[in-house]
Amino acid sequence: MTEPVVGPDRTTPGHRRRETTMISRGEKSAMDLIETRLRQVIADARQPRIEPADIPSTGLLDTLGLDSGACLSLLLSVEEEFDIEIEDADLSPRLVDDLTVLADYVRSRTGSLELS
Length: 116
Fold this sequence. Notes:
Layout: E1 2-6, E2 20-24, H1 25-45, H2 60-64, H3 68-82, H4 93-97, H5 99-110
Antiparallel strand pairs: 1-2
Helix pairs in contact: 1-3, 1-5
């Protein structure tokens, strides 16, 4: 079963029509699961520890005060948790600053929506 995901409203003059993409409920729940697991990994890696529910979706670098060493440690923890390898070419501040971007990257690297 799929549900529509509506993009930005582009019905105003000068914009194209509204974009709609279909994602399956399974994919959405898999992304939710990945984000939940990522929040736990971040919480466990952060010193002092922070509750997973207190981890924002964006602005992780500034909000959590992550420096380059903490970012590398976090990415190593993500690799271990999801049994993936983050390619050097894929490393960017945006990857560790936005939870949704990181979750999407993890999903793309697992090759499957079935995560245990």
